[in-house]
Amino acid sequence: MGRTDPVVGYMEPRLGVESASCRLIVFLFLALALVRGVLYSVLIPPWQAPDEPQHYQMVRLIGDLGHVPSLNETCQASETYQVATVLHAEVVQSLRDNRFWEYRHRHLAPDLSDSRTDGEILHDEKLTATIGHPPIYYVLASLALYPFRSSSLPVHLYVLRGLSVLLSIVTVWCVFTVGNWLSLDERGQRSADLTSRTWAATLFAVFLPMHTFMSAAVNNDALAEMLASVTLTLVIWCCSRRFSYVHIITLIVLLLLGLFTKRTVLFLLPLVLGFLAWKSPNQRIVGSASYRPSGNTALLARLVRSLTTFWVAKIILFLVILTIVYILAFDGATQKCWDLPVRTSQLIQADRYTSDAPNHYGIWVLLGFASFWGNFGWMNIPLDVAWYVALAVLTLGAMLGALRGARRVWLARRENPTKCCVMIFCALAVLLVFAQSGASMIVRQMPPQGRYLFPAMVPIALGFTWGLFEWVPVRYHRLGLGVSIVSLILFDLVSMLGYVLPYFYG
Predict the structure, then answer these.
(1) pLDDT bracket for residue 75 (50, 70, 90)
(2) For 382, which DSSP code?
(3) N or C: where does the chain have the smaller number of CB atoms within 10 Å of the terminal CB?
(4) What does the alpha-carbon distance between residue 10 and residue 395 come to, in Å, rounded to a whole number?
(5) Is the pLDDT at 405 greater than 80, yes or no?
(6) Side-chain-side CA neighbours of residue 499 (13 Å)
(7) Alpha helices, DSSP H only, in 146-265?
(8) Cα→Cα distances 185→194, 280, 490, 498, Å
(9) What gap in Å lies between CA 144 and CA 151, rounded to an integer?
(10) DSSP code at position 111
């Protein structure tokens, strides 16, 4: 239960779970996510998750070189080239030993008499190290790998997979925590029907097969998702509390860590900056007992006060962030992924919008939808079409239910303004991450992948499950929770036992 503010009389959520029962429940959720992640990491053969060879090589290069290599260090005379040559031989041999080509392409590995070097084989397969990508994950992973530096390559792979699993369970905690806050009414009482929705949303994050699959692989997605989830959770937490410069600094640090991890968290930049522009230190959203705007005059006065209070500090803060992003866009070590001006110009090029564009963009969106729910391996183990049709109908129902619930919360915004604020920021996060994914599809001329939506897993999980529960009468919410649990478990079992494991093990 939250703490009642003695001045304004509304509930302030605490950053965590208070009661013993809540702590036990969240512990069970986290333990379940951990066990599932470990199982997936062990059951999936080495190198059979997207981009694992590239990410592993980058981690090893940092560990072997002692610094982050840049694009300018790839000439044959450089130390990076010499270290990479040895690493290429190890990786290609491991790919052969673990039947990478047989699993991914359904053909034999390159013959041992192939005249190409190991580096050329990796280059032709587009499996070279991710030099030029934002470095935070690779630095963290190299530190995690340091105690095992003398171990074999398979041990390295499973250690890094374990790191991803540990990072991913933070997202599960964030989903539960935000849902737990939303279960409190203005008097601080926890609603039983909203608790059922929170549990269903948390289990959605735990049991979504594709989420677990990607969270048990060697990639920078898990860290990007964790940082994005914590950032969104902190933004939501600050909606109902006094806002200090400690919160500002924490948000900025989280945002910059995310930007230096993966570009899929770029959607947080306008969200966080917009929040900071709207929210002033020591300002809070108050309940109707202490704050009732009296017409447009009071609303205008509040707007002017928000724009003028601490505006100098805010401008300086924004300039610092934009300067860092600018440096990130043109720095030699990260230019490959953060060449923002070029990517923005490509978004408006005429050849991106030919007469055939709607057709292939529509197909790519469908492929992205499929890979959100389940298209395993290197996107080469899809489910049957009937599953995607059923999931599309379910998603449509969840979207309509979410709109219905959002309208109800909006109409009751005077009674519970905090919940309305949280709803707005969750909706903005979902819209921004979808817009980002669509823009990336147009710029890169490639189908979007569902994992690029996972940084917004907190609002997606809450919005999806709460939207479905909008169609269930309150008295049947516990039954709805039971149906959700059974459905998620069955879907996970069907995905693993019916598709993934037969593909790899027959």
Answers:
(1) low
(2) E
(3) C
(4) 34
(5) yes
(6) 20
(7) 153-182, 192-207, 209-215, 221-238, 245-259
(8) 10, 24, 33, 43
(9) 13
(10) P
**Closest listed residue to residue 95, CA positions, set 58, 52, 64, 141:** 52
CA atoms lying within 13 Å on the CB side of residue 108: 4
String of DSSP letters for 367-380: HHHHHHH-EETTTT
List Cβ neighbours of 100 (8 Å cut-off, separation of 6 or more). 46, 47, 48, 53, 109
In the block, tokens 């921004």 appear at: 432
pLDDT of residue 395 exceeding 50? yes
Beta bridge partners of residue 227, listed in sequence order:
none
Query: CA torsion angle for 47, 51, 54, 60 (degrees, to 10)?
Result: -60
Give the pLDDT confidence score for residue 5 in this predicted structure. Answer: 44
State how beta strands 11-12 and 381-382 pair: unpaired
Residue 175: count of CB within 10 angstroms of its CB? 26
Could you give the CA distance from residue 164 to residue 256 in angstroms, rounded to a whole number? Answer: 20
- Closest CA relative to residue 422, chosen from 252, 194, 211: 194
Helix (H, G, I), strand (E, B) or coil at 184: strand
**Using N-to-C axis directions, what is the helix angle for 52-65 and 136-145, rounded to 10°?**
70
Work out the angle between the directed axes of helices 79-97 and 153-182 (0-180°, nearest 10).
Answer: 90
Amino acid sitting at position 315: I
- Angstrom CA distances, 311 to 203, 269, 283, 304, 317, stand at 42, 18, 14, 11, 10
Position 186, amino acid: E
Q: What share of the chain is helix, strand, coil (3-state, %, to 5)?
A: 70, 0, 30
| Residue 173, both tokens | 């905690």
Between the CA of residue 378 and those of 53, 133, 408, 448, what are the distances in Å? Answer: 12, 20, 42, 13
Tokens read off for 409: 């919360």
Model's pTM, two decimal places? 0.87
- Residue 146: exposed, middle, or buried by beta-carbon count in 10 A (0-12, 13-18, 19+)? exposed
- Please state, in angstroms and rounded to a whole number, the distance separating the CA atoms of residues 441 and 429: 18
Q: What is the DSSP letter of 383?
A: P
Q: How far is CA 148 from the centre of its chain?
A: 28
Asked if residue 459 lies in contact with residue 176, where contact means CB atoms within 8 angstroms, the answer is no
Interhelix angle 477-495/192-207, nearest 10 degrees: 0
C-alpha dihedral over 25, 31, 33, 36, to 10 degrees?
Answer: -140
User: In angstroms, rounded to a whole number, what is the distance separating the alpha carbons of residues 218 and 162?
Assistant: 9
pLDDT (tens digit per residue) in 170-206: 999 999 999 988 877 656 566 666 788 999 999 999 9
Which residues make beta-bridge pairs with 376?
381
**More confident call, 65 vs 18:** 65
Digit-coded pLDDT (tens) for 420-438: 888 889 999 999 999 999 9
